[in-house]
TrEMBL record:
Record domain Luciferase-like: where: 11-321
Keyword Oxidoreductase belongs to the record: yes
Pfam families: Bac_luciferase (PF00296)
Gene Ontology molecular functions: alkanesulfonate monooxygenase activity
Keyword Ribonucleoprotein among UniProt keywords: no
Gene Ontology BP annotations: alkanesulfonate catabolic process
Signal peptide, first to last residue: none
Protein name: Pyrimidine oxygenase
InterPro entries found in the cross-reference section: Luciferase-like_dom (IPR011251), Luciferase-like_sf (IPR036661), SsuD_RutA_monooxygenase (IPR050172)
The entry's keywords: Flavoprotein, FMN, Monooxygenase, Oxidoreductase
Length: 360
């Protein structure tokens, strides 16, 4: 996104439950199914209440446990193409692994999604950081360092963007080769590019290539510093990269009722799935198991969360977006039906009014 295209309004969207269990590792929490019906319903709710985007991850292997967390999942681009047809306004962001898909194949897939969605498509680019997902089908190179993976992703992204705009592309890289490679039609406009990560390599990539960066941090101070860094780096390239983070919303009529939900769901934390998640990250099984056994119930939540009444949720979101200098949030809901509709009725209008007042 060029500097001239910068939009100041805050953006709110949802992370779709494309894997079973959504974003809660708990036997006592709501358990969304990895079905098109569930995700279509969530996308239609999101569009109906006035959210800005829906995004789905790409997941190739789950974490096991009592809940078989993410053991069942759909393919991101295929599902988002269906959701593009089912919706009319909301932006549709899919995910692809640069280490799995040849850039020529990826370019054609997203061009198709952009056509189906009438210009609402986005691509979340990930470079494959969990060995267990890719070893199972022989697509993991243990010799590639973190820096190497980002170099591969940079070249991959350059290839995709060139295929979207040039009549023919020839590239020879250590990771793939394109020879007189053609990909038409070219998407118009170019799909939005998204990237998640907070490392030095990630932020450098985001500032140079992405229109949106998803960041995670241990504190609001760290988040503010990361967001400011991405904004500054992008500006140095003459472009804009908007920053987002993720937040799970647990809402009820009162703070006490919402807190009771958190406590109840924490009692069912799936420690075997937590162990599987950590081992997927590359942690040894003994270390992962020791951590999971000692984890508090809040470990059932895969992201930071807010629990409370509409007023509490609204105040918290306004506070973190302001204090962390974020351009928006990707929201997660435990069951994506009644809870999202409640948010749309009671919280989102207040956030929009606050943003409008701040802009004026």
């Amino acid at each position: 996104m060029s500097a001239k295209e910068h939009v100041s309004a805050k953006e709110y969207g949802i992370f779709l439950p494309i894997g079973n269990g959504g974003w809660m590792l708990s036997t006592t929490a709501p358990h969304p199914e990895a079905s098109y019906a569930w995700n279509k319903r969530a996308a239609l709710h999101a569009e109906g209440i006035g959210l800005d985007f829906v995004m789905s991850m790409a997941k190739w292997r789950g974490f096991g446990g009592t809940t078989d967390h993410w053991g069942r999942s759909l393919e991101s681009v295929t599902m988002m193409a269906a959701l593009a047809e089912a919706t009319s306004r909301i932006r549709i962001w899919a995910t692809l692994h640069a280490n799995v898909h040849n850039p020529a194949v990826a370019a054609k897939m997203l061009t198709t999604l952009q056509d189906v969605s009438a210009g609402r498509a986005g691509l979340n680019i990930v470079n494959g950081s969990y060995p267990g997902e890719f070893q199972q089908f022989g697509d993991w190179d243990p010799d590639l360092s973190h820096e190497d993976r980002y170099r591969m992703t940079e070249l991959w992204t350059e290839a995709v963007c060139r295929l979207w705009s040039e009549p023919s592309v020839t590239m020879h890289t250590p990771y793939f080769d394109l020879v007189d490679c053609q990909s038409r039609p070219h998407p118009a406009p170019r799909p939005t590019l998204i990237s998640a990560g907070k490392s030095e390599d990630a932020r450098r990539f985001q500032a140079r290539y992405a229109d949106g960066a998803f960041l995670a941090a241990e504190s609001l101070e760290e988040m503010r510093a990361l967001s400011a860094d991405v904004h500054s780096r992008a500006k140095a390239h003459g472009r804009v990269c908007r920053t987002y983070s993720m937040l799970t919303v647990v809402q009820d009529e009162t703070d006490a009722l919402a807190a009771a939900k958190v406590k109840a769901w924490g009692k069912g934390v799936d420690r075997e799935a937590l162990t599987g998640m950590r081992t997927a990250w590359g942690v040894s099984e003994n270390q992962a198991r020791a951590w999971a056994e000692g984890a508090a119930g809040e470990a059932a939540f895969q992201t930071a969360y807010v629990a409370g009444s509409a007023a509490t949720v609204t105040e918290h979101i306004e506070y973190i977006v302001r204090e962390a200098d974020l351009d928006g949030l990707m929201l997660i809901f435990p069951e994506y039906d009644a809870d999202m509709l409640l948010f749309g009725e009671t919280v989102l209008p207040a956030l929009r009014a606050h943003d409008a007042a701040a802009a004026s």
